[in-house]
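2.7 Reproducibility. Because tokenized structures are sensitive to small changes in the input, we list the exact sequence used for Acetylxylan esterase, including any N-terminal residues retained from the expression construct. No trimming or masking was applied before prediction.
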Amino acid sequence: MKKTAFLLIVYALISLSTFAQEPDSARRAFMAAQAIIQKESAADHAKMLAQLNISSLRPGPSGNPSAPNAANVDESQATPYTSLPDPLILKNGKKVTTAKQWWNKRRPEIVEDFDREMYGRVPKNVPNVTWKVVSETREMNGDFPVITKNLVGHVDNSTYPSINVDIELTLSTPANATSSVPVMMSYEFRFPPGFRMPVSTTTTSGSATQAAKPEPTWQQQLLAKGWGYAILYPTSYQADNGAGLTKGIIGLVNKGQTRKPNDWGALRAWAWGASRALDYFETDKAVNAKKVGIEGLSRYGKATIVTMAYEPRLAIAFVGSSGEGGVKIHRRKFGEQVENVASSAEYHWMAGNFIKYAGPLTPNDLPVDAHELVALCAPRPVFISSGSPKVEGNWVDAKGMFLGGAYAGPVYKLLGKKDLGTMEFPPIETALVDGDIAFRQHSGGHTTGPNWPTFLIYADRYLK
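Resulting structure tokens (single pass, no recycling of outputs):
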């Protein structure tokens, strides 16, 4: 079952029934807009295939368990590979034995492979960003008084005025704070008109909600610790589709032209925007810029680990259900596959070169794998989150994400840090939080919600 751009937007986060209640005219307009996006994305995808001299691709499996080509969820068939790239073996075959060798030789090799073959290169001529506080308000979030700033980062488009790019960001900090505070920045979805988040009937632990006292939101959990939070809207500066690759920050730098095969994709572009938000935080006295973390779910879980790997100023990452293209081992035949991400529905996240691994090449030909993306975050802490296969499903491959963290362990240990402590996939709701790589699979669905309390206890070691 091919995913449409429409289903990619919702991505199992909300019920379509909420939108179905909207007027017919709104639904028709939305679906018509999505059809145009799909058509333009397919055309751009075809142009990239032509650049790569690829005539056809292997189709990815379906996320529908009852489909004839359903994705594999049988663990006995999940490991066709015999080995993974060793993050501590140099290209010349020599073993990395010191931190200096890692930083000066091996890490740059891995970055180059990710730049060229997976996520693309950020151009050297990306324009500057000027931040403006659009509004500042004092408000209450539950029982907590906060100061919220609505910010816009305007990208200098003087070299190509026909494309305007603004980064949308909000920052909320405790109103009674006497000094700068740690901040967790979250990549957030912006749903189209007509969508409303369904009212939850369960708490973050899955038990029945007590009407008298709802569970605190993740923002309120942060405020209870005296921390702040920021919301970054990635699609404000780079669209989540192939049709947008000649627009947004990628299109601005390319002056509206089609990407080259090693140009950056949306994940790197979103990460670039997070780095520009950090630039602003370094100027705001309310924020302890040395204690800023990043969080995201699903495609924004992918963006979270990519951001952490490439942005050394971030202190911690909370990676939610990132799946293929994130911390899931690419060589595993379980759930979503390389072929799915290389399709016209998802290729825009990656460099064009990534498509090769669903055509003439295979995932086994990748020079790197997801554990090395986690390794690029070392020695900083990374918390990997997943939901229950019974609720979230198997598409994101919880074990594959666990292994992405586990196989990064040798690099953390080389740098004097602790790994996950085991190579055995743990039972659900078992928190592996003793090391600098952490993992927990909660019993809920496609959300980081149930793991926020565990993450915050873990983060205390680093941001307290």
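Strands lie at 129-141, 144-155, 166-174, 181-187, 228-233, 287-297, 316-320, 382-386, 437-441.
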